[in-house]
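Supplementary Methods S3. Input chains for the assembly prediction are listed below.
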Amino acid sequence: MPKEPARPLVAGIDLGGTNILAAVVDAKNNIIGRAKKKTKSDQSSNEIVGRIVKCLRDCLDAAGVKAGEVAALCVGAPGPLDPPAGVVISAPNLGWSNVPLKALLEKELGIPTLLDNDVNIGTYGEFMLGAGCGAKDMIGIFVGTGIGGGLVLQGRLHRGFNHTAGEVGHLVVKMGGPLCGCGNRGCLEAIAGRAGMVREIAYQISRGRKSLVDKLTGGDLEQARSRVLAEAYAKQDPVVVEVFQAAIEALGVTLGGLVNFLSPDTVVIGGGIAAAMGKPYVDAIAEVARRNAFPQCMKNVRIVPAALGDDAGVLGAALLARESLG
Amino acid sequence: MPKEPARPLVAGIDLGGTNILAAVVDAKNNIIGRAKKKTKSDQSSNEIVGRIVKCLRDCLDAAGVKAGEVAALCVGAPGPLDPPAGVVISAPNLGWSNVPLKALLEKELGIPTLLDNDVNIGTYGEFMLGAGCGAKDMIGIFVGTGIGGGLVLQGRLHRGFNHTAGEVGHLVVKMGGPLCGCGNRGCLEAIAGRAGMVREIAYQISRGRKSLVDKLTGGDLEQARSRVLAEAYAKQDPVVVEVFQAAIEALGVTLGGLVNFLSPDTVVIGGGIAAAMGKPYVDAIAEVARRNAFPQCMKNVRIVPAALGDDAGVLGAALLARESLG
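Predicted structure tokens for the full assembly:
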């Protein structure tokens, strides 16, 4: 039998509004070096790109390898993007507009670079090495400040015609419902994303109701991170419990519809809110989804929490980089 | 150059609650024989299967070919189905429960037979030979009594893990909205399917409003077929116009979300209501969808009326039969 060719080293970067994460991954899909830097999104795009480069160099140093030994790099960035052109069209979180990230990184690092959506890399990481391992058709849903998603169909990341597939947060589940950042009303994200939940909690407080969140954030609700909401929920704060119940219902109803629509074998639910709330939150969403979907569509479908935490993105990116080598 | 092998004859059957349609299709995808019979869904499954067999034999006679010359047959049936087993699990329209349709037809006809969903065959027909010709990622939406759908992804019919994919009518677009036949509230079908629209018209009449539909159906609203609704709409009957506006809004909002979610290049809208209402109806849905989706997701996406009418199903079925030959 011919010997299998050695699989080269690959690298992944997860570019977020708060942190830049980088990892180098070996032939056995182990992370052999990692690094992390603050994004400092108030600075210019040139400065941020400089920090991405520095982060990857730190990560190569940690792994003890040279840039020339890395066969490919994939960066997951917030969008909208033009992946084939390697351009971040617009990233409000970063203050970016039309940044040719692929070209800039290739020039600095000399590594063939791929650009993909930040949620796609997390979905692919969970699919290949995490909670979705062994799946064939998988939906990834990530509940954080907003709600993002990714799709794996027939074992491959589905990007679609405009390279935008996976957008789960802007399915309208309640026509005439709360206003969403996108301008529509009743999007899933407006009800079940952290920003939407905090807005509803603030509204309830403004109506004279009391909530622990007020105290836990020192009255500055903008500081209500996922852990704060999870703490108030654990302490059965009535306002927070109500808001979470509505969020879980909207997530479950949407997910039930998507299971009917796409017939996946696996759904992975991750993101900051899911991580802070733990498995009972995912189980509650799954229960609503099972009640809403047709039994034949839901048969043997797994609905599970994400397993890789912050590593999902860099691992998924690195494996997409490897996949791009053909 | 080696000569391409001749493509064999294939046949397709579209089994509906009212009619059975059959066609034999030649190597160039032309229908060379067709037949049609009443389903008579009040009769036993044995009698209906007998009529399916007779319908295909009539169709073979019309084409002047023998059963042995047909390499494969595909039947599109209402579901839920178990396609690999060839069993119709439950078809309330036909009064069927666990009918092994594939085995029964193979025994009678001696032609290798495939079972698929009635909406999938229509979607595949439009994709291969109709309005979706040239598409790669396509959503088919069929608005009739209910609302069904089908998906083509990467040029192939997407059936998914439970062979149930495409179910677009039971995406919830208005939580707390009108009760749907499936037991949920606010499904797209409950607002925009014919049965849901007629229910709302009946409710408005019961509240004392006047509607042309009352007169056009002789007071028997159950008789309000698609053409009757389209006629009342064309005459600007206020109740019917209102109900259509709500239906078009719900269809457009749902479609906008699905374009965000799946990033198709083409959406084909067909079915009895779409056929009766014509292109302005599809254009109105498309306009709402374009307003609701992200511009980058909607860029260059075609939203078009189905083109094949009743032939979509039998043609799609026949081509799926051919595809099954490998």
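Residues 238-262 of chain A form the longest helix (25 residues). Residues 31 and 281 of chain A are 29 Å apart (CA to CA).
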